[in-house]
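Dear H.,

Thanks for agreeing to be a second pair of eyes. The structure we're designing against is below in token form, covering all 278 positions.
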């Protein structure tokens, strides 16, 4: 690590509530182009009844309600879910109201059908678990969610594009290298070309189209980049196998090629989404 980089680096807090706040305030906004592209393609708006699996801290839901959609969101992380409640259910939250946004912990197993009829759109913007055994949306949740949607409703899955088109892949390889091999399901791995299609077919869904969206990761400084990336959860297994300080140090080194002269960090990335039908 260069002296300048070492001076700029500070270890990030590992508390779950801090990570959830970092996700909401730093990282989640990087996916706005993906959310916009999907909503535009599927003409999300008044009359849309959306079920979002793994809704995170609620930004994608907030964007959908701003278009006039009625939304339900599920989320396993209680801290992210609390952030989503603050965005969507608090008095005065822009673009949303308690009658048009409903949030539940866990997966879709406890979600009833909306009173106006089945869901017309299901989204799983991530994290996905194509191979099973790790955290994220997998086959059982997709099967349950698709069963709550009307026949032929679109189910959208999203994930990383080709590793060579994703500058952040180098940073995430730190997570894979440092993680204990025995916790392989929780380790980050590059996305396979057909991961989304295989997951959709395993859940009984019919792939019907896909798209790619540029989602660059841009940060105000190196510390923000480290905090944002750690908030994704991709480095949790690495931190359990080593320690947070070592992970943050090696992550800072991996980010060094993307550190610009003004101190900002910029990493071009491409995300891919799949539209399938039940």
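And this is the sequence the design step returned. I haven't edited it by hand at all.
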């Amino acid at each position: 690590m260069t002296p300048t980089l070492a001076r700029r680096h500070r270890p990030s807090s590992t508390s779950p509530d801090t990570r959830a706040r970092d996700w909401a305030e730093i990282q989640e906004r990087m996916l706005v182009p993906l959310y916009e592209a999907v909503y535009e393609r599927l003409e999300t708006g008044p009359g849309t009844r959306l079920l979002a699996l793994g809704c995170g801290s609620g930004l994608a839901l907030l964007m959908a309600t701003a278009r006039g959609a009625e939304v339900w969101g599920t989320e396993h992380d209680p801290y992210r879910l609390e952030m989503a409640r603050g965005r969507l259910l608090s008095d005065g939250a822009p673009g949303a109201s308690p009658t048009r946004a409903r949030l539940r912990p866990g997966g879709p197993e406890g979600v009833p059908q909306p009173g106006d009829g089945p869901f017309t759109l299901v989204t799983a913007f991530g994290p996905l678990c194509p191979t099973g055994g790790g955290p994220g949306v997998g086959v059982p949740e997709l099967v349950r969610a698709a069963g709550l949607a009307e026949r032929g409703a679109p189910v959208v899955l999203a994930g990383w594009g080709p590793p060579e088109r994703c500058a952040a892949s180098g940073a995430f390889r730190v997570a894979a290298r440092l993680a204990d091999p025995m916790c392989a399901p929780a380790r980050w791995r590059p996305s396979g070309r057909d991961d989304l299609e295989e997951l959709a077919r395993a859940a009984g869904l019919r792939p019907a189209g896909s798209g790619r969206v540029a989602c660059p990761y841009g940060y105000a400084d190196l510390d923000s980049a480290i905090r944002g990336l750690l908030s994704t959860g991709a480095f949790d297994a690495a931190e359990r196998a080593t320690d947070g300080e070592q992970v943050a140090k090696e992550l800072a080194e991996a980010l060094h090629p993307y550190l610009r002269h003004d101190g900002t960090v910029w990493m071009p990335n491409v995300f891919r989404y799949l539209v399938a039908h039940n």
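Two observations from my side: The chain has eleven helices and nine strands. The chain has one domain: 3-277.

Warmly,
E.
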